[in-house]
Amino acid sequence: MPIDRNTIKLLRIPFSFFLAPLFLFAYSQAETVVHRQALWSFLIIHFLVYPASNGYNSYVDRDEDSIGGLEKPPLPTRSLFYLTIFLDVAATVLALVFVNTLFAFCLVLYIGASRAYSSRQIRLKKYPVMGFLTVVIFQGAFTYYMSIAGISGGALRLDTANIFVLLGCSFQIAGAYPLTQVYQHEQDLRDGVVTLSYKLGYIGTFAFTAAMFVLCNVFYYLYFTTRELGMIFYIIQVFFIPIVAWFGIWFSLVWKDHRQANFRNTMRMNWVAAICMNSCFIVLIIINRIPLSYLSSIETAVPEYGYAQETLTDFYLRSTDDLNTRRKIRIVASKTGIEKRYSVISDFDKNPEEFEFFNRNAALMPEPTLSERMRLYQKHATALSRKAIEQIPGFETSKNHITHLITVTCTGLFAPGLDVELMRELKLNPAIERSSVNFMGCNAAILALKNADAICKSHANAKVLVVCTELCSIHFQKRYNDDYLLSNMLFGDGAAALLVSSRPDDRYLHAVKIDGFNSMVLHNGYSDMAWQLSETGFIMNLSSYVPDLIRENIGPMLKAVGLKPEDYKHWAVHPGGKRIVDDFAAALELDKCLLGPTYDVLKNYGNMSSPTVLFVLKEVLEKAKPEHLDNRIFTAAFGPGLSIETMQLRYVQA
């Protein structure tokens, strides 16, 4: 049969705009989105299934008065019936081919319910309560469930939060549906249909709608607060304001004159509600589907051997008989601001004959070889890393959700590396994506976090485990030049582990959002901080000019990228050395009290290279107070090159 313009008109395809909110809501809330399937699902539901349902209803009812979307509907022909059959079959086939079986099965159930609602043989719509419940269930909770099946490729998990959202969706339809019938009482009665709206009366319909929307709001509130996304609920309320305003105006009009319960006012209500709710859920899609990155669960670990700075100084002093060198060692040690450091080496407080790593003589000769140092690194690095990782709250139950692993180190290398060792010992997902930041020095943690941030912003459900482990003390060298006088008195061992994810959690008082990163390489400091390999270990260059370079360049660097120190209330600065921290504060005119955590970590642990800034940041985050919400945190670390890496964080509502 030929399909004429009136047949297409009775499909009421534009009316799908009014039915789009629940699909958009589902898209914004789906834990996983398969974008190709989501697009096909949207097209199938809104351009095939809904029009087929509208067309079949028009064919059966043969309406002469106004219906939803058409003020003066044309009379249907037999071609409309066949077209609706074709659309339903096409929808089912496309769902099976391009989406998934569950979605196709849901479509068949929806189509069956739609036909049962309208058909002359069953005619559910003629029963006030049964017809109402059919619409509420299938256009509410079932449509949300079906949309999730199409969008994510799997069934909605029926936990407490999702039961709340399904109830909210159904009460949303329960509020809207009687209003769409309020102008059709006479037409429905002529057709033998008694609607719930007719039973309630004009004023009762408005009162019932208000009650349903209150219940809808209650369940949406429970859903978002259960998922710890309470702020989203309040965003929705903003979009509800125009809907409530027009509802109130229309109700007052109907209160005065029942003739105001007409087609045109109903369509105004539909347009206001659809525009506001579609806009609302598009905003939620932007919020939820364009992921951000959040930092959480920083945990730290140090080896079992802790030494007072005096003990380590004495060990160094005993390695030489030169009085001038011994005097320099004491001077440097007194100015470090360090009271304690940790090491995987047990020798530093022993007599030479008891040494286990160094050769058993006071002169420490011959020195351990690079191979011996690397064997010690391999023996201890994985265990120390695990010690930090396993302190992450709930790690055993959440580790299967970790999608990426980034390991950081500059004090040892072996293969298979630290990343593979951790995967094996922690029984992480063997398909986890892994990478390593190696040999990049003290600011490598920020470089790793920059990679984690990029991952989370490109993968909506990413959870990245970052592990920084350094055994600096295994590279203790029997050298007495200025570089080694400083480095032997400065460096210790430690590890830090943290999670970065695309969704906030409640690990800290406030969620910690990563705002951005900035970098600068000072080529005039190329040789002032560097690592080199040698037969006896890693050779460190750490000149006394490093603090000067940082002092002279940190201010211009921040100015160049538009960052103002006064905008930051909290500071996590890598304690590369006491003078570095002092000069950093002076350069930015900061009260040294703001760098209290930096000085504390330096005093209690020394410089542990890459994990050190995370020790500082952990202390900062654990001191958060309620009034710190929306405060900014500035993080900085310094590495070979000479390179400056900074990271900006913000306390936000979880």
TrEMBL record:
Residues 296-504 form the Chalcone/stilbene synthase N-terminal domain. The chain crosses the membrane at residues 80-111, 132-155, 161-179, 200-223, 229-255, 267-287. It is found in: Membrane. Pfam families: Chal_sti_synt_C, Chal_sti_synt_N, UbiA. Residues 522-652 form the Chalcone/stilbene synthase C-terminal domain. Keywords: Membrane, Transferase, Transmembrane, Transmembrane helix. It comes from the Bacteria. Its main location: membrane. It is a multi-pass membrane protein. Belongs to the thiolase-like superfamily. Chalcone/stilbene synthases family. This is Naringenin-chalcone synthase. It comes from Dyadobacter endophyticus.
